[in-house]
C-alpha cells in the first residue's frame, strides 16, 4: 500500500470485499453454471483479493485476466463485473496513467467486439465512473504525499536551523572564554622567568586547548559534520583567520527596544576594548548613528552583537600586540555596516585555526539578508559586513 498504509487505507480491502460479495451474489443467480465458469469465477475473485496487498501490480493483472476471460466464451465471464470495475479504478489510482488508460481502452474495445453496442454503453459508463473514482484517489494521494514532503522539508529545515543555532550558542558561551585563556597564557609565557610558573601556565594552556578542540568536535556534530571543517570550502578555510568565538552580550531582545539597545551595544564594545587593552593591543571601535534610525529587528540586533564579539575575539587570537586594530560600526536607516581591520599575527605565534566562526556567521548573516566579505590586503585582515536595519 506504500506510505499511506494503516487505518486510513482500509477503504481498498473494504471495497474489494464488497465487490467480491456483489459478484458472488450475481453469480449465484445463474441457474446453470458450468464447472469451467465456476473455476474462472473463483480464480478471478481470488486474484482480485490481492489488490489490497499490491494494488499497483495486482490491478493491471486483474484487468488483463478479466479481458482474457471475456474472450473465452466457455468461461461465461460477464461484461460488467464489480471486481473488474474495481480493478480499473485501482489501476487509475495506483499505476502509471498511460498503462491504466490503455488497459481501460482495450477493455472497452473488447466489450464492443464481443458483446455489442448495448453492452458497450453500460461498460463504458461504469468503466468511466471507475476511472474517475480512481483518478480522484490518485490526486488525493498525490496531494497527501506533497503535504508530507513539505512537512518533512520544513522539519529538516527547522532541525538544521536549530543545530546551527546550538552550534552558534556553543561558540558564544565556551570557545570565546577558552580562546581568551589560551591567549592570556601564551602572552604570560613570553615573559616567563619562574620554571614552576612556566610549567603551570603550559598545563593551563594545554588543557584549555584540549577543551577548545572538544568544543569544536561537538560543534561539528551539531552541524552534521562529515569532516573536521563541515560546510566550509577550502577557500573559506584559507582566507578566514578568525576562530568561531563570539560572546552574546545583554542586548535587549524586545521588538521595540528604543535607544537602549545602542547603549547596550556600546557597553559591550567598551568591555571588549578593555580586554584588548589589558593584553597590550591598541585600537578603538566606533559605534556611529546616522541620524535616528529605527531599531532593527531583534535577530539582526543579536547577530550584530555576536559578530562584533567574534571580531574582537579574532583580534586577540590573530593580531600580535602591540599592533593596532580599527573597527567601525555605522548604523543607518536602511542598513548597518561593520568594517574591521587588524594586522595578522606572525606565523610563529599563530594559533590553530578552526575555520568555523566566520563560516557560521556568513550563513547567519546571509539568512538575514546581509553580506560578509573577508580578505587580506598588505598583511592586514579586513572584514566588511552589511546587515539590513529595516528587516
From TrEMBL:
<protein>
    <submittedName>
        <fullName>Histidine kinase</fullName>
    </submittedName>
</protein>
<feature type="transmembrane region" description="Helical">
    <location>
        <begin position="65"/>
        <end position="92"/>
    </location>
</feature>
<keyword id="KW-0418">Kinase</keyword>
<keyword id="KW-0808">Transferase</keyword>
<dbReference type="GO" id="GO:0000155">
    <property type="term" value="F:phosphorelay sensor kinase activity"/>
</dbReference>
<feature type="domain" description="Signal transduction histidine kinase subgroup 3 dimerisation and phosphoacceptor">
    <location>
        <begin position="166"/>
        <end position="224"/>
    </location>
</feature>
<dbReference type="InterPro" id="IPR011712">
    <property type="entry name" value="Sig_transdc_His_kin_sub3_dim/P"/>
</dbReference>
<keyword id="KW-1133">Transmembrane helix</keyword>
<feature type="transmembrane region" description="Helical">
    <location>
        <begin position="112"/>
        <end position="137"/>
    </location>
</feature>
<feature type="transmembrane region" description="Helical">
    <location>
        <begin position="35"/>
        <end position="53"/>
    </location>
</feature>
<keyword id="KW-0812">Transmembrane</keyword>
<feature type="region of interest" description="Disordered">
    <location>
        <begin position="227"/>
        <end position="260"/>
    </location>
</feature>
<dbReference type="Pfam" id="PF07730">
    <property type="entry name" value="HisKA_3"/>
</dbReference>
<dbReference type="GO" id="GO:0046983">
    <property type="term" value="F:protein dimerization activity"/>
</dbReference>
<dbReference type="GO" id="GO:0016020">
    <property type="term" value="C:membrane"/>
</dbReference>
<dbReference type="InterPro" id="IPR036890">
    <property type="entry name" value="HATPase_C_sf"/>
</dbReference>
<feature type="compositionally biased region" description="Acidic residues">
    <location>
        <begin position="233"/>
        <end position="242"/>
    </location>
</feature>
<keyword id="KW-0472">Membrane</keyword>
